[in-house]
Amino acid sequence: MQIAITGGGGFLASMLVRRLLDQGVAGRAVTRIVAIDLAPCPVADPRVQSIVSDICDADALARAIAPDTDAIVHLAAVVSGQAEADFDLGMRVNVDATRLLLERARALGTRPRVVFTSSVAAFGGPLPERVADDTRALPQSSYGVQKVIGELLVGDYTRKGYIDGITVRVPTISVRPGAPNKAASSFASGIIREPLAGIEAVCPVSTEMRMWLQSPDRAIDNLVHALGLDGELLGCDRTVNLPGLSVSVGAMIQALREAAGQEAAARIRYERDPAIERIVASWPNDFTAERALKLGFVADRDYLSIVRAHMARSGLAAQAIGTPRQ
Amino acid sequence: MQIAITGGGGFLASMLVRRLLDQGVAGRAVTRIVAIDLAPCPVADPRVQSIVSDICDADALARAIAPDTDAIVHLAAVVSGQAEADFDLGMRVNVDATRLLLERARALGTRPRVVFTSSVAAFGGPLPERVADDTRALPQSSYGVQKVIGELLVGDYTRKGYIDGITVRVPTISVRPGAPNKAASSFASGIIREPLAGIEAVCPVSTEMRMWLQSPDRAIDNLVHALGLDGELLGCDRTVNLPGLSVSVGAMIQALREAAGQEAAARIRYERDPAIERIVASWPNDFTAERALKLGFVADRDYLSIVRAHMARSGLAAQAIGTPRQ
After folding, report:
1. Do B87 and A160 touch (CB under 8 A)?
2. Structural domain count, chain B
3. Can you give the pTM of this predicted structure?
4. CA torsion, ordered B21, B25, B28, B30, to nearest 10 deg
5. What is the pLDDT of residue B323?
């Protein structure tokens, strides 16, 4: 199986590449991965080829998505905070490049599987306490609007028989490894990751604020599941709200305290940022995700285990200062 | 008040132009209308200027939408049947040209009112018996997908302060004057208009099929209302499901029989077309439209009065053969 991944230089793509090489997709071995991004894919493996390019470049995209490409995972995006600050850049990358990608996939004539990642930012405005599978998308950020446009196109390209597409609306990922980014939700990883690394972190929102979260490990589980899923099971709605955990920022910090002690938690400075707070507050923080669970997508058990998994991955488990409770 | 109208050569635009010149918008006189379309606006009035151009032409669009343009009514579109038959044309006109228009409106820097016409085709898939104001858009046609993309952009351009936009989801218009077009719903006018003109018409769907209808007169009432409406009243959702009538095709034909006699109704030939039936059946046929009614948008009284209004407009009232019941 040959897979193209956009945004292949990012942390999620690296984890996905490793998992695909190790475990394949639904029993099929992955023999080749082409990763296209502004940065090369950091996974060193003869089966991995990096194309270092803007995904807005149709020629580069055509090299990444070749006639023998079986599936495409479209992760590349201008993130929420940046798409809000630079509307035109968001439209160019999140809408125009997604269209280029879909057109390229269509031109293959092989109806490849396309997995597109959307977001909780698809939702906004007045929301039910828990977002249901048929809750309408009413995005209140440019990022959300651009993602929903991608969802609609993936749905229509699939309906027309040009591709075999699935959109997964991914919860906010926490704890992302790596550096802070321009996503409005960047703090949802930063307030755990930075204190654990001995660095001060800023919490820009109220600790009462709840978020809909997923660990990187479960996100990878779900992307691989989407790659192997029978598309027919999705019927006329190719967009799936992934399962996740509804956790308040206060509870996230409490989990950090439990896993790594008060010393770590004390590295968080509280400084509210109205711009970030407004965007994040517009997102839903709880979902039923019934359809996704029925389709075999998975959620994390609890947030404490997410923090511990991050510590284990970062070689921090031994340094834990607190008294872990079971 | 100066208004630009795309699709200005069409029947709805002509009616709108006449109404705007006669009655203005919310007490303001309309001093100038620029109509841009492939055909010139047939209204002969010194206040009306036609620009004969594809709306995909950015230069022509920039001439139509000038710094002194107060409002834009965006009616031009590739209709449902054609957008399904020619995907690329639909994307180019319904998505790309809508973006050009929004960019041009944004470039003015005056935050003009933009009224965008969407459609019942925004909906599809499993639907409640009556579409509510918060029912999700899950379009099952390329036309519907392209219209929802336009809705999302109008919403985001408004949220960003680039325009002051309102999208109205217009019911299927019946009875359209003029000739049949490539809309899947074209028959919803044809089965009334053609028999009244002594011409045979084809009914391509089951007479059981229900549709969500609005007369051209009420559609114009609603477009003018949208032009003058205080946008703040719409909150974070700039898309409104217009009120209409839920009528079965059989009841439409019965109204024709009542208004013009069995001789007229006998001019309908029944020949089902699966392609048309599939598209039309994917649209909802009943709405609550509570929000629109509260905002002052209007519906027709009943379908018989729609048929009679069409006959009156066409100078056919005197020729009515049937025995009108009150």
Report:
1. yes
2. 1
3. 0.94
4. -30
5. 45
